[in-house]
Amino acid sequence: MTGTFQSTAPLLACGAYLLGSVSSAVLVCRLLGLQDPRRQGSLNPGATNVLRIGGYRAAILTLAGDMAKGFVPVALALAWNLPPHWVGLIGLAALCGHLMPLFFGFRGGKGVATMLGVCLALNPLMGLLQITGWLLLALRFRISSLAALTMALITPVLGYWLAPDYLPYLGVACLALLWRHRRNILDLRRGRENRL
């Protein structure tokens, strides 16, 4: 049985990318009659921007959808006992889909929620620690990007202790999130970053 599942691992990786390419923010905004988040606020199709333009309900739905895109394919890979390198690649494929979605002109979000979903599937304790850290920082400083960047930077550290088999893939994911937040980093240094 495991051998059969391993032979389908490349298909699961492709499916993870396609699932990641479904923009929860755009779909939620369309369903709720809100304007396209890629044309409002920060122009980012993510939960934080949806919160600004559509309120808490829209943001929570977006967050849940983005996390599920990372959680579901990785949970399937683990349930099928795929080797760690395939599990890691499948998680990265889901994240890549969110960052560069095929269905939305490769204009994706910043990957925070999808990465949280991946990490929750890999190790629930790691995911809960990340979410707790994000919430504490966001509530304290009211700056979503600062909380996201800190969460990304602690992910390899948490992975070293809680998910060592996936550490290289978590490191790549961390770098991808830092790259997607490069403008936020500049705005933070200049004191211009938007607050929640």
Q: How would you describe what is shown here?
A:
The chain is mostly helical and 196 residues long. It has one domain (2-190). The protein contains eleven helices and no strands. It is globular, with a radius of gyration of 16 Å.
The run of helices and strands is HHHHHHHHHHH
Shape descriptor: globular
- Report mean pLDDT, rounded to a whole number: 93
Total DSSP E strands: 0
- What's the gyration radius in Å? 16 Å
Uncertain segments are none
Main beta-sheet strand count, sense and barrel state: none
Task: Using brief descriptors, characterize the structure shown.
0% strand; 11 helices; 196 residues
Question: How are the SSEs placed, and which strands pair?
Answer:
Elements: H1 2-7, H2 9-20, H3 24-31, H4 47-54, H5 56-79, H6 84-99, H7 112-122, H8 124-141, H9 144-162, H10 167-180, H11 182-190
Concise synopsis of the structure shown:
This protein is mainly α and 196 residues long. Helix content is 74%, strand content 0%.
